Amino acid sequence: MKTTMTDAGPFEKLVTVQIPESDVNEAKGAAARKLARELKIPGFRPGKAPRPVVEATVGADRLRSEAIEEILPEVVTDALEELDLQPAVTPAVENMRDIEDGLEVDVKVTLWPVLDEVPAFDGVKVEVTGAEVTDEEFDENIDRMRDQFAELETVDRAAASGEYVTINLSAAQNGDSVEEAAAEDLLYEVGSGAFIEGIDPHLSGTSAGDIVTFDGVLPEGFGERAGQQVTYTVLVKEVKQKKLPDLTNEWVDDVTEFETVEELTESLLGRLAEMKKSSAANEFRMKLLDQLIDEMEVEVPAAIIDAEMESIFHSFSHRLEAQKISISDYLQITGQDQQAFIDDLRGQADRNVHTNVLLDAVVPHANLEVGDDEYRELVGALASQTETDAAELLGRFAETNQEKELRSDILRRKALDALLEAAVAIDSEGNTVDLSPTEESVEDSGDDGAEVETPEDADDV
């Protein structure tokens, strides 16, 4: 078997393989047996028809074509091993042509992109939102807690948005009362946009005793009558406002796990600080990767982007299926059209691939390695999660490509950590922002190392 290789583009090779006709003829036996199992040939049980009968039934050209399909995967695999090529995606047959005493096949092989130079990342500054908790943020969260225990009190003034009114409601259509639309002593939040479309502008600014009339449509829930035009009449009986409880030790002790305002304040400030620090850390990671990716000079083959795009789509589809949601339903729920959805998938795929190309380049640059003990520890954690024997998993992964993929994921995780440690997060004034987790947050994370998360996980649909 003669094999040659030429460049077909950035990180693409065109491998040309010559297959002797004798090899094709030898493969015709397996092809005939396969066809015999698929065809219904009179006088023969499935799979039992001899090759001459099969060839007479399907024709010589069909049998030869099937033989070529039978032999081609092994031929391509042998050629790739001979040329020491590791395709990043499934090789694609570009062309086949008959030659003297055989066949010549052109196969495009796409390789994983490699950076000539790693973008400088040591000491790179990335501006992020400050992680300090402001007084306004603390007060907002305290007020949100107090709001959950608020009481309504009647006030003698006009209603404003966010306040409540007690109303009697009626509706008429062509002078006839719509009984099912009538309600008494209904408590309604002004400005909520709930219940009846268009009611809020008419209730805002009303006081107890006011009567307003307006035209509108019957809301969903009225069956066949939903959407029909009616005239609404609303009597405002009371205007109410929320009265928040005072922030006292007694209230804190009654409604929370804490006994004093001081204890609640300390705990809330700690949680808010961790939330802001986590958000800033994620912003730091995303912006740093974006900045370094923008500095990369690499042309990624379209086949790799397409493969990643398909992988994202399949993962997303499976998650939707688990929730019994179809893609068409998802597009309708989110208000996206199909092209916008596809463009978003392609954008995510492009970023995932460029991120992994960057991280792969950082691995040798930072002299990163995965020790056998480290790998076995990870497999052991995975075995515990799946209630599988660790030795069985190690053997299974060694026989497949999964060990290589797991080690690659670990290295990319390490590469990302190296980037984050080398770069510097700053606020809008240029001050360094400390994004290191507290001891409490590390303990709460419960990270046992079983999940190897790569940047791809953050960019799903």
Description:
The strands form three sheets. Strands 6, 7, 8, 9, 10 and 11 form a six-stranded antiparallel β-sheet that branches. The protein has helices spanning 21-38, 51-58, 60-83, 135-147, 200-203, 249-255, 261-295, 302-322, 327-334, 338-365, 372-386, 390-399, 402-422, 439-445; strands at 2-9, 12-20, 92-99, 102-110, 125-127, 151-155, 164-173, 176-177, 183-189, 211-217, 229-243, 424-426. A hairpin with a 2-residue loop joins strand 3 and strand 4 (102-110). The protein has three domains: 2-110, Alpha-Beta Plaits (2-Layer Sandwich); 151-243, Chitinase A, domain 3 (Roll), CATH 3.10.50; 277-459, Trigger factor, C-terminal domain (Trigger factor, domain 2, Orthogonal Bundle), CATH 1.10.3120. With 461 residues, it is α+β, with helices and mostly antiparallel strands.
Secondary-structure topology with pairs:
Blueprint: E1 2-9, E2 12-20, H1 21-38, H2 51-58, H3 60-83, E3 92-99, E4 102-110, E5 125-127, H4 135-147, E6 151-155, E7 164-173, E8 176-177, E9 183-189, H5 200-203, E10 211-217, E11 229-243, H6 249-255, H7 261-295, H8 302-322, H9 327-334, H10 338-365, H11 372-386, H12 390-399, H13 402-422, E12 424-426, H14 439-445
Parallel strand pairs: 5-12
Antiparallel strand pairs: 1-2, 2-4, 3-4, 6-11, 7-8, 7-9, 7-11, 10-11
Helix pairs in contact: 1-3, 2-3, 7-10, 8-10, 10-13, 11-12
- Report the C-alpha radius of gyration, rounded: 34 Å
Q: What fold name stands as the CATH topology of the largest domain?
A: Trigger factor, domain 2
Head-to-tail CA distance between termini: 45 Å
Class by SSE composition: alpha+beta
